[in-house]
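Anyone able to model this chain together with zinc ion?
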Amino acid sequence: MENNSSQPISNPNNVPNSNAGSGALNNQNNQSQLFCPVCHQPVKPEYYFCPNCGENLKEVFGGISVWTQIGIYFISVFLPPLGFWPGVKYFMKPNPQAKKIGIIAIVLTFLSSIITIWLIYGESMTYLNTLKQSLTGF
Ligand SMILES: [Zn+2]
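re: yes, here you go
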C-alpha cells in the first residue's frame, strides 16, 4: 500500500484563477483609500513619494507644477522625439491632469515631428533643385 493512486487528485485542472479580478478590485477601492499606481501599496494623499517604491505621488494625486508642464511642452515642441516619452509616461498615470498633459505632449510631439519632417523635406528638395540646376547649368 505504498502507492495511493486511488486518492482523488487534490489539484484539478479547472480551478479558476483567484488573481484574475484583483486589478479591478483595486480600482474600486480608490474612492476611500489611495493606492500607489506602481506597487499598489496603500498611501496617504499628503505623501510626496511612495514609501515602498518611491513613485512621485505628488504628480499622481496632486497637481503637476506649471514649470513641469512648460518643460514637457517645451521638449515636445522643440525636441520632438524626446517629448514622446514623458508624454506616454504622463498618459499612463491615473491622475486625469497627468493624462491630459500626456495627451497634449504627445499631440505636440506629433505635430512638431510633422513640421520638422516637412521642413527637412522642403529644405532637401530646395537643395536638390539647386544642385540639379548647377549640374545641368554647368
Ligand atoms: Zn509604490
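Strands lie at 34-35, 42-43.
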